[in-house]
User: Fold these one by one.
Assistant:
Number 1:
Amino acid sequence: MRVKNNNKMNICIRAAIYSFVLLFPLIGKSQQKLPTHKNFDKGLQKETRTTLGVPGAKYWQNTASYDINAEIIPGEKKLIGTESIHYQNNSPDSLKQLVFHIFQNLYKKGTIRDDVVHPDDVHNGVVIKELKINNQITPYRIEGTQLVADMKQPIASSSSVTIKVAWSFSIPSKSNIRMGAKDETSFFLGQWFPKVAVYDDLNGWDRNIHSGGQEFYYDLGNYNYTVTAPKGYLVWGTGMLQNPNEVLAKSIYKKYQKAKKRDAVVSIVTQNDYRSGKPITRNNKWIFEANHVSDVAFGVSDHFLWDGTSLKGVTEKDIYIEAVYPVASKDFIEVAELAKKSIHYFSTELPYPFPFPTMTLFNGTNGTSGMEYPMIANDPSADNRGRTVDVTAHEIAHNYFPFYVLTNETEQAWMDEAFAAMMPYKYQQKTEPTLNRLTRYARSMSKYANTDRNVASMVNSTMLRGGTSYFNLYMKPAVGLYVLQDILGEELFKKCLAAYIETWRGKHPTPLDFFYHVNQTSQQNLNWFWKPWFFENASPDLGIEKLEKITKDSYQITIKKTGELPVPLDLTVIYKDQTTQNIHYSAAVWKENDSKTIIVKTTKQIQKIVLGNDYIPDTNSKDNYWKN
């Protein structure tokens, strides 16, 4: 997406960095020294991947575009749908089968799950009423949360097929696993339609069965979907509403149009609108369009409040933002404005313009965790402002990862979760400093990094559960990105991040693609950093080894790196007169040595030395203090 003049320079910078990566690769064999795996090596041989951090000359990606019609029946807690899918095989392979995700089989009797499901939500699975490929009824088999259709006629390379599916399922009402009922007449629908699985250059078909703990991996496509809801129900979803003048009552439509033009938040639907008894809606068929996205989701309600506003001047077109919530969710009164501030921050400070035309924050869960989808998030209500600011910014950040840069959430969840945790931290601290993810994560690392909870973040995410999953997919890699920013400096880190986004937008990078890309863009061999932070279960531990007065006006302080994980060295020297001196080195200080000698020139008497700060994890803080 092009941006207005105030951001054109950023686009030029990103293009220049991308060219620099291609033209001036690092010299030598250092790029080959990161641990790899056989599938990535096959990608190198096939020329779909490189060690420069950019797609190979023969990189390809399949696409699936959807036309969907769905009806939601609140009284029965049921969704009925039909879809037509255009699937394009851009791979060099002839596909002998098609694999679909039918995620709602998570609630099917007998399914293996990571999460507890309320007995009332267990059902007989997604009902497939019809499956046709190129107008031919096609046999299939169900394997957990996947449907597999063997092709009578394989899908040749560079050819396409048309798929038609009719299905239905029961909407969970008492289990808050990303989607379901908020109350008797309010629902959030995610993972709601049969979806062609990814077939990629490294793994072929994605055959991961969804067990609830992991998230998702999707290809790009264009979506046109119609949701039929009962009279009086409102619908909000991924993409742009195509027929607002047909579905909204005139008074509501007028306020909706006002919100799309105003900087200030407009109350589109209020409690008084419901109390008035006047119609809120007219037609009950809501039509949405979303192009070049990986997924769509939507929410419905007959009593939720609706706020809207627009962000102007950071992209070529205004970004429309809305918050949707019940009266009881008092914190959501501020969410539309918080969302606008978050998107402004990402677009101007990251800097990379927000890649989509709209964003909806929907309070459709009774749980404590939010769930991201392109252009819409299903967010919880919170009883403290810090949590509201945090979850709003975090879920919006996911629009960059994994919905613009299409990382594999299922197998490498840190590639989106760590970025979404680290990217907004400055905005969050400025807006509401009572909750700081990075300092909280650093404290957790100090507590758990020296335990068996700490494994390599590169371990396939499907193998991780519970606290081990959260530690290695959120906490440790988010702190690692903060440490990387300290090594590179904020400006170079931003350039690396923006160049990575620009290079891999709409594509499927692996961790190695990211590591190689940062190495090339920064023109630094950072393998010494990548290995302990992402490939090992290293722990952080620095300590004050000794303090010596070497002359009448100088001291020598020796800091020892006992742990294997390189972290910043931050030293606060407190003098007897209560003045202080801060000494800081990035984690690069440990690139060659495990000991650092610091000379402090002063005629003052040192009273106390403190090693570390709230952003730096340390498993043994007992040797972080010296007192005279």
Number 2:
Amino acid sequence: MVITERFLLHFFCTYATIGKEVFDMDIKVFLRDIKNRIKAENKGSLYLMRIIAGYLFACLFQYMNRGGIFAKEYPKGINIAIFIGTFAIGYLVLTILKFIPVIKKYNTDAFMLFAMTAISCCYLSFAYFLEVGRGIGIFIALAPVLALVIWQTIGRYRLKAGKAISGTSVALIISGCMVMLLFTVMSTVARYYTLSAPCFDFGIFTQMFENMKDGQGAVTTVERNYLLSHFSVHVSPAYFVLLPFYMIFPHPVTLQLLQGLAIVSAVIPLMLICRKYVFTKFKTALVCVTFTLYPAFIGGCNYDIHENCLLVPFLMWLFYAIEKESIPLTVIFTILTLSVKEDAAVYVAVIGLYLIFSDRSGKMRKTGALVLLLSVIYFAICCAYLESQGLGVMTWRYNEYIYNDNGGLITVIASVILNPVYALSKLFTGDKAIYVIQMLAPLAFMPVVTKKFHRYLLLIPFILVNLMPDYVYQYSIYFQYSFGTGAILIWLFTMNLRDIKYEQRKCVTAFSVVAALMMTLSTMSGMLIGIRHMNDPKHTAVISYLENLPVTEESITADTFFVPALYKQKELYAPPAHTLATDKNTPLSDIILLDKSLTHYDENYKFFIDRGYKEVQVDESVSFRITKLVKAFES
């Protein structure tokens, strides 16, 4: 018995020792293997990417299920167990992907980190708008993170679009165009049907196009409250390009649709330029999608149709003509661009100046001189016409640079040349600095990244038209003044993109698509708010009432938001939208239509009653909004 106990003790001790040695050896090997994996630069980075991607997945899951993201109390409502569980699920899924034969050959960790970062940035940009309001604060915070991730994933690990993704290039371009068209058209059409489009400027153009259709020329009565050709204010014969389409469907909504179509159509020349630069189909698609998401183009439609929208397609076709070195096409689109507006000569003149100093062929440098000459002559003719036959050139927008009482454009130019420091001090103050970020950041600042010094000449319109004036609308992406500058920046973006290395080009295009979407979501989402009210029966009743008023010889004075729907009326006037009606600023027409929703309604109502008008009954369906007054006849 004693012998047996000793034998068993010896047996277990021996094998326990052996087992311990084996176990110790396995642990050491295992730890050494982990150490080597982490020590390896690539694999250590990939593990970190997987961890971050899982963390972003967990955060995004929380954000999508609970609002109030930008409140400091937000963490109080987070269930830590669910957060950790969500992270674990995300990490586990990414780990499993590494063992699937079809997928494991791709760098799934790097790809998923990029994807989760891009999705998170876009979602947070939209959430920022909903919770904080429109602005670029979230963009400034997230854009550097996005750039770093793209550089580490697409750049360092050279992620490539698979054949399946590359084969969707045409679909990507079409999808981008449809998104841009639907966004701009639906938002602006909603403005009309919700009575949000004012007389200035949509009401002017609805009446003008109706008069053009009837063969009376580009005349309006609402622009200055007397019969006036719009060309006395701005020389814009390019409007006649849109007239045939309006004549087929004569309605204010047609004008909003034409604006969206005009801008989206510029994707065609941009695509041809990219192919001329020998970009791959997928890179071409990404550049075109960046164009369709560019906030300055979407926001420029925000204030209804303007002739400036034609600058985008005309300029893009002009750039294609230059790239193709076609002199006839260059001349044709130079003339078309000049026809948009008198100040379009600035864009054309600068393009001519750029061609003269560029490294292009001698033929194109000579063509540049011709383009410059045409623009100078045309601008001089327009200025002479406006001063003698029209209302004058709008030099008041540059009053900050006019240092004498009788100064004009020559004084502005002299001020900039003689005292450039003063001009520079005015360029990046306050909202102008934000505007620069909104225009350049979605394009990864590529328009200003070039070794070719002559290309900086193309930035002159950006400075002259948008940054120098103190007219607030000219340095806002929510108005039409960014169309021409935006087109030039897109061309610079594409040109400078061609000059960088292939891997850098991949990073820049990826960043620009996501950044443009981020900026648009955080600044433009408000444009869609009106859509949900577009079919409101009350709005529909008012629009129908105004559109169907009989066209008579009686004159009508209507408040600002009623004017666009009264486009058929030949003698139509509008009191000022933001000040009280007076004998000087408000015509005493045969019929007065007052808007009960306006701040000055009571004061304006009393103004007309005191001048012998009386209220008459209107249809009950519109009486909540419209007050109709007529002249009281003596018995």
